[in-house]
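During the second half of the funding period, the structural biology subgroup turned its attention to how the target accommodates small molecules. The most pressing case was S-adenosylmethionine, which had performed well in the primary screen but for which no bound structure existed. We therefore specified the complex as follows and requested a full 3D prediction, including the ligand pose.
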Amino acid sequence: MVSSVSNRGIFRQLQPYLVHRKDLGLAFRGSHVESVTDAPCPSGLKYYAADSTTAAFIDHNLKWAIGERAKPAFQFAYLMLPTLCNQACRGCFMGQDKQLLPGRLKGSHFEPAELDSILSFLREHSAKAVVYGGGGELFTWSGAFPLIRQIVDNGLAMVIFTNGVLLRKDDVDRLNDLGVSLIVSMRDTVEAYHDSAVGRKGFRATLETIDNALVAGFREDQRLAVEIPVTTNNDERVINDFLPVMRALGIVPLIEEYIQLSTSAEEKRLCHSFADSRRFFERACEMDRSLGFRWKPEFGQRIIAQPRCRRPLYSFAVFPSRDVVDCPSHTTCYGNLRQATLSDIIYSDRFRQALLAYRLCPCSVFYTPEQAAIPADLPEQLEDFV
Ligand SMILES: C[S@@+](CC[C@H](N)C(=O)[O-])C[C@H]1O[C@@H](n2cnc3c(N)ncnc32)[C@H](O)[C@@H]1O
Ligand code: SF4
């Protein structure tokens, strides 16, 4: 047990699951999880989870693409912003660690009127939320809360990926009042390893935001997830420490295979191969079963708590360049808002054809039940991982 372990206070909810490790600082300790039977059992993050509603969106859109429905429908859209970042996480898929940002992240912030028209399109097409997925850290920007307010006032909810470092308790309470779903990002369960991976001292501040969100009650409404990219460096701790602690606290564990975009040759050596990924998912499944959570890994799955990624079939992303793209991993561009309206872009043949041609997201390795199940036509950046 740790007392008064935070820089700025005491971790009220995380404390039973933390230890102090000599020279390494604070660390999650999965063996401190005795039982999770009383913990809430979130099936997925509110607004973001890929669930049966998502499957209905996909089915609807594929029917729309062949003319059997009048209009498409979206679960949410990603809004990417030209926000700076306060961390430099190793292998950030937005290139923030190397200052090699994708060209389409360059551009101005959206004017309120521009944003209003995107929000009306979303409302008219069944969406419930806008997701901030980067590129950078939303809370480095003074316009963050006014933006969230505009989205909420327009009748949509907001899901925010954040490293949590800049959020104080009052901010977390305001986000709670605004009904935001939070995805707080971590890189490791051990302070020294996390800080080394993010290039800053951030572990305790990130934990404090998770703790404040737990105290504020985000979890009761299924609005709290913690995301961790999994590598050959942290996979043992992710299974033995991260997963049990998340389950004990009722937080959605968004454990995901390391995305290969923007990773250097050295960083690629940290990525799971398809065989590593297979073992990882099977072991995570066993750990979850021992904790009372039953699921089976499925072909194509690359995130725990989410099935095979099919995001381009029920969402899209808008970037600061005004490009409208299939997902934040930015592989297929459908058009640009400076040349066409969002409606023209989405109702285009190009968009319909992309829906019909969609097979598998190429951004990272994923679960395959055996070596022979790895698709023969892998995208180039995944070929080295077979
Ligand atoms: C690009 S960040 C932007 C938002 C915010 N700065 C953050 O870190 O949460 C969005 C999410 O992408 C995740 N991410 C970044 N690089 C990744 C990679 N190479 N593989 C998997 N996830 C990654 C982060 O951990 C975070 O959860
Ligand atoms: S905090 Fe987020 S955007 Fe910044 S470097 Fe880390 S993953 Fe990338």
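Two results from this model are relevant to the next phase. Residues 1-8 have pLDDT under 50 and may be disordered. The longest helix spans residues 274-290.
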